Amino acid sequence: MPSKRSTSSSSKKSNDALTLLKADHDKVKKMFKEFERLNNDESDEECEQLAKQICNELKIHTTIEEEIFYPEARSAIEDDDLLDEAEVEHASAKELIEQIESTSSADEKFAAKVSVLGEYVNHHIKEEQDEMFPQCKKAKMDLQGIGEKLMQRKQELMSEMGMDSEEGEEAGEAATGGARRSSSRGGQASRAGR
Ligand SMILES: [Fe+2]
Ligand SMILES: [Fe+2]
Which ligand is nearest to the CA of 82? Predict the structure, then answer.
């Protein structure tokens, strides 16, 4: 039996699209938890700052998904309903984000709006990770290539929005460091299974 040689270079950081998107998901989930904690301590200013950060993270994340990941997923997995739903969920999340951005923590519904956004986003993340991502894996999308595009676009958006990227350095490293592509992966291009 010919053993499938999967000499995956374990030294390389995983920058595939799904890993990257999941890292965003984890980050934002943590931020929502942190918001609940701060909110209980009634530190208004910090709450407001964190809420704005959450909104920025989400705007960037939804943008890179809509511009890059969803179109790729739509053509690869052929489940239009799933993608339509995801896009509609993004649209309603954005409405809530706009509301949060245009109010301050002095608004008595401010915390409620952030909490609802958190519930909403958690639900959306779950659907992506439990339904969409497994289908993307099966569909043999070029997750590495898409991951690089996502990363680049994310950095662009972050600098447009004047956000510091503590992650930016890491991301930049990943984007350029990937150039060390050895020639040892022959033969896979020619059989893109359909
Ligand atoms: Fe999404
Ligand atoms: Fe997502």
Answer: 1
